[in-house]
Amino acid sequence: MAQLGLSGTPEPLDLRHLGHERVIGCYLLETPDGPALFDCGPANDVPELKDRLRERGLELGDLRHLLLSHIHLDHAGAAGTLVREHPDLQVHVSEIGAPHLVDPERLERSARRLYGDEFERLWGELVPVPEANVHPVGPEVLGLECFPTPGHASHHVCYLDGEGTLYAGDATGVRIQPARAVMAPTPPPEFDLEAWQTTLDEIERRRPERLALIHFGVADDPEPHIADLRARLERWTGWVGSGMTQDEFARAAGDDLGTDLDAYERAIPFWQSYAGLERYWAKKREG
Q1: CA distance between the termini of the chain
Q2: Contacts of residue 170, Cβ cutoff 8 Å, sequence gap at least 6
Q3: 59-107 pLDDT, tens per residue?
Q4: What gap in Å lies between CA 5 and CA 16, rounded to an integer?
Q5: Dihedral of alpha carbons 195, 200, 204, 208, sign
Q6: C-alpha to C-alpha distance for 211 and 209, rounded to whole angstroms
Q7: Is 93 helix (H, G, I), strand (E, B) or coil?
């Protein structure tokens, strides 16, 4: 499956979240049923999304489909806003995530607990998607292989095209190109180390040629990239399990990444990763 206007390697549409480059991106694809978008960012990035589409000679109304990796607001928060403006847009999402697009009340309540007074500034409005526009994914979506990839979130899926591009969402971590370090994004409430390692097994089994990352850019070295993520997942989880405080974790994580820390922190602040890791261990102790 070819990418619109490209030959081979896709390029992210930089949504310039909160005025910063290389924080949130999305990808434009050509499908057998017309142009599609992989992930869409939050509602407050819709003006930038429209600008990026126009740079490719497209308007929002030219899109036929929206493929979502998962329903976290930095990936899917604009879905309802886009469908409100373009009612023919068809939205593809995991079966677990679909009900939360149709009725986002619980999703919004959870996000507001995490972000507090920063919610509107970070994400903008959260609009329901009409049920008729929402399609739970199966093993194939518009010519792409689709498969469950839990670990970061239970409702996460990835899409693999015929040219070897894995549209990875957060399943293969955060790597702010051109940096080499791969950050493990582990926000609450659903981080699951064991599930994520199984997900990485499934990705490696498919031998993708490249990883299209939302945060940020295309990684053309999947094997060392995934190995780096595996190691950092184990290391960071172990730190918090051994009793590190949030401040200690932030210092250690910064030292571990070693470069471009402001960009990584804009993609996912260390306090969020710490909160998810702490919750993981709390659930372990309870169960």
Answers
A1: 44
A2: 69, 70, 72, 75, 152, 153, 156, 185, 214, 215
A3: 999 999 999 999 999 999 999 999 999 999 999 999 999 999 999 999 9
A4: 21
A5: positive
A6: 7
A7: strand
